[in-house]
Amino acid sequence: MYSRILVAIDGSDTSRHALMHAIELARRLSSALRIVHVADMDWLPLGPELAIDTGVLRAARRDAGERILAAAREAAQHAALEADAAMIETGTPTQHVAENLVDDAGRWQADLLVLGTHGRRGFRRLLLGSVAEGVTRHAAIPVLLIPMRDVHAPS
Hints:
Number of helices: 5
Number of strands: 5
Structural class: alpha/beta
Strand content: 15-25%
CATH superfamily: HUPs
Order of helices and strands: EHEHEHEHHE
Largest sheet: 5 strands, parallel
Helix content: 40-55%
CATH architecture: 3-Layer(aba) Sandwich
CATH class: Alpha Beta
Number of domains: 1
Distance between the termini: 22 Å
């Protein structure tokens, strides 16, 4: 049915829930699994009035992403799965998280994309639209959206 499953994670409880679903699906279907974290850098250009070293902020964002991916790889290994894992950085404000996920799914030739319905986007989500909505609008493959309170969660 699905031989290449890509799951998007951001460290939120909902994305961890989506990861557990993707791991269980990959295990049951003997599918390849790719875990992707998009390091959303588009908030970094703060302007000259805020004298903050954006290099330090980018490094902190990368470090956080690496920790998120390491925990996800560990969860997959605990389920006896080898998972490919990658961090993608948005380069400019016009490169949105959803577009990066859809592009990566295409490059990796995923046939299912799994993600949580809500992540760590906070107030910006109200202004820019949710990542889940953007992915479902642009993906050419099936998208499985996992809500936080899923009564059918894998055990």
